[in-house]
């Protein structure tokens, strides 16, 4: 299990432009970090950097697992539960098919209880092209749950969700932290947790 | 089910459901094979002579139609990020996608080819060689295509550049495949051509997942 994620003098550059530099933070198991900043400040880039898609221009990202430290991007990626801008859903597949696919790919288990939890049990056999943006977001949340990853990277987790959906997200995040997980969320809204914030 | 088989099955299912990219490739192949005899005329000997080359080129071009979507769909809707973070290595992801593309395009094209060979008056033994050469060679088309598809991933209109990248790389497959059919037609053994084709396909299927995975990684970081 992951015990902390630490950024040391982290810098990110896209092309010629430096998005941020000398970024330091530490998130421990059970904590959440809200990443705030204007559009284009580099919130998504920071998440992609943590996930290992981008390489830092300088500095390091260190994950502590048990009492071992690692700054290997591949190893870190295998801890990440990802909720990105795009929902990663196929219009042709049904809700249940998608969840079963992602669960099998992540070696998790897709049970009906997860769909129930995100409020999609009645839509299980509906192809995703009939889902609203909010329902797609809920399915993406269900995928996050079945992936069973300790380090959640959430990009605008409240986007497209109604009030009930937003409180569901807050509830799921609180539970994840309660179970010793780590959350790093890029957001414009308060997370509703006793979290730290990072301004980019 | 293991992650590899899961991804493979999903891609085959998507190909079957998305308005049938396989059906599109098959229709294109059938149309090309019908147009050539109409253009060349009813010289049966000439038709049999060009059959191997025309059908091989037709099969390669038909397979190309759906190749640009190999990674593109998953890249655009964010699935590729999630697949990259899954326990399945990107190399095996590429291999699963290559296999799914072959099952939904290369294999149906191969199965259709003996029927189209009738339009060219290709004798039985040569038709058999054509069938075997496509069976061996079309996996190489999917594999080499995967390299091109992964390279053009973040380009708008990458589908137009894709053929320029992969068609030159597929010259050996067309030469050996069509050559084997011609050899069979002349009563010479087709074994040499088929052997070289098999070697080419083997190397392509073995090596291209590494190239495609490296290129996908680059694109995810862009």
Uncertain runs of chain A = none
Output the helix-strand order of chain A. Answer: EEEHEEHEHHHEHEE
Bin the helical content of chain A.
25-40%
Mean pLDDT of chain B: 92
Question: Which overall shape of chain A is indicated by the principal axes computed on the Cα atoms?
Answer: globular
Assign the CATH superfamily of chain A: P-loop containing nucleotide triphosphate hydrolases
Count of spatially separate domains of chain A: 1
Proportion of strand residues of chain B: under 5%
Count up the domains of chain B: 1
Q: What structural category do the secondary elements of chain A indicate?
A: alpha/beta
Could you describe the 3D structure shown?
The complex is a heterodimer of chains A (200) and B (222). Chain A has one domain: 3-Layer(aba) Sandwich (Rossmann fold), CATH 3.40.50. Chain A is 31% helix and 30% strand. Chain A has helices spanning 43-51, 73-77, 95-105, 112-117, 133-147, 163-178, and strands at residues 2-14, 17-28, 32-36, 58-65, 68-70, 80-83, 151-155, 182-186, 196-199. A five-stranded parallel beta sheet of chain A has the order 6-7-8-3-9, with helices on both faces. In chain A, strands 2-1-4-5 form a four-stranded antiparallel beta sheet. In chain A, helix 3 (95-105) runs parallel beside helix 5. The longest helix of chain A has 16 residues, at 163-178. Chain A is globular, with a radius of gyration of 17 Å. In chain A, 42% of the residues are buried. Chain B has 222 residues and is mostly helical. Chain B has one domain. Chain B contains ten helices and no strands. The chains are: A alpha/beta (200), B mainly alpha (222).
């Amino acid at each position: 299990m992951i015990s902390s994620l630490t950024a040391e003098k982290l810098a990110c550059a896209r092309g010629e432009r430096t998005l941020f530099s000398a970024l330091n933070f530490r998130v421990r198991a059970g904590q959440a970090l809200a990443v705030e900043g204007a559009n284009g400040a580099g919130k998504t880039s920071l998440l992609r950097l943590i996930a290992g898609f981008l390489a830092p221009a300088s500095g390091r990202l260190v994950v502590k697992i048990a009492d071992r430290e690692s700054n290997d991007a591949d190893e870190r990626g295998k801890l990440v539960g990802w909720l990105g801008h795009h929902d990663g859903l196929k219009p042709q597949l049904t809700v249940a098919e998608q969840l079963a696919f992602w669960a099998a790919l992540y070696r998790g288990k897709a049970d009906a209880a997860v769909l129930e939890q995100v409020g999609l049990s009645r839509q299980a056999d509906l192809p995703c092209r009939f889902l609203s943006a909010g329902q797609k977001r809920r399915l993406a949340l269900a995928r996050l749950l079945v992936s069973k990853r300790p380090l959640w990277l959430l990009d605008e987790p409240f986007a497209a969700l109604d009030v009930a959906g937003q409180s569901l997200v807050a509830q799921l995040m609180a539970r994840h932290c309660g179970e010793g997980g780590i959350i790093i969320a890029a957001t414009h809204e308060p997370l509703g947790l006793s979290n730290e914030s990072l301004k980019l | 089910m293991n992650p590899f088989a899961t991804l493979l099955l999903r891609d085959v299912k998507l190909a079957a459901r998305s308005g049938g990219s396989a059906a599109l490739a098959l229709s294109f192949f059938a149309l090309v094979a019908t147009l050539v005899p109409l253009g060349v005329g009813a010289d049966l000997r000439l038709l049999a002579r060009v059959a191997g080359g025309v059908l091989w080129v037709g099969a390669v071009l038909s397979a190309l139609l759906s190749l640009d979507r190999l990674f593109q769909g998953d890249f655009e809707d964010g699935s590729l990020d999630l697949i990259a973070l899954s326990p399945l290595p990107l190399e095996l992801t590429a291999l699963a996608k290559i296999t799914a593309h072959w099952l939904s395009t290369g294999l149906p094209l191969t199965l259709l080819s003996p029927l189209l060979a009738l339009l060219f008056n290709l004798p039985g033994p040569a038709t058999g060689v054509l069938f075997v050469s496509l069976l061996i060679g079309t996996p190489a088309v999917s594999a080499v295509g995967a390299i091109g598809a992964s390279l053009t991933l973040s380009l708008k209109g990458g589908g137009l550049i894709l053929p320029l990248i992969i068609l030159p790389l597929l010259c050996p497959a067309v030469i050996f495949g069509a050559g084997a059919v011609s050899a069979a037609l002349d009563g010479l053994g087709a074994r040499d051509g088929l052997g070289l084709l098999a070697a080419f396909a083997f190397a392509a299927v073995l090596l291209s997942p590494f190239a495609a995975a490296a290129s996908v990684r680059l694109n995810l970081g862009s």
